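Protein Record: Sequence and Backbone Structure Tokens
======================================================
Scope: a single protein chain, as residues and as a discrete description of its fold.
Tokens: labelled as protein backbone structure tokens, with as many entries as the chain has residues.
Position: the record begins directly beneath this header, with no further notes in between.
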Amino acid sequence: METIIVILLAVIAYILWRIYRQKEDEREAVADEKFDAEWEAKKREEFKDFPHLIGKVDYTWLELFGRLYVETEKNHPGRWQNGGSPHLNAAFMMYLKEANNTKLDIMEVDHLFDSLWDLTEELLEHLEKYHESTKHEYEITIITFWQLAAQEAESFMGKDFETIKKVFQSAPFTDIEKITSWFPKKDNHPDKELSFRDKEGNFPRESKGAKIIHDRITV
């Protein structure tokens, strides 16, 4: 009999603990949701100058390439890379680093990066002509894309071209295809959106770049 009572008391204690733990978990969940909502609202206010990038570009990159680059350029005109566009210059340097990686030394990989950069220039020209944005949003998008591409390229060491080519067919490299959808189209936008693949669907397609964009590079 005493054994049964002990077991019942143990079961009751366990049930009471589960009820308490459930209430605590619910309370913490509500607190976490409130914190997350307040944090998100704060970030949206901080980066309200880049409305099309919120939810698309991580706040870390918006802080670095948005606020810090823009504020530095505003307070010290021409400080970044001997003038020009600080974002475009920095992205171009990232491209050069990957396209001329002597440790990798695979010509076909260099060609992939060359094509990707030429498409980047073409994309930037297209965005400026046919899409709407606030100041600096296009440039922040481009440098963030190349930052992530350069990070992924670090994993190429020791891999052959076929393996690298397959990696190129996925994010973050193919993320360039999403960028036009972030910005509303202007009335003069062509019927077809800019494509980054050739007729056979290969990515990245060949491109001649965009002279008007390339001429802004000062590095």
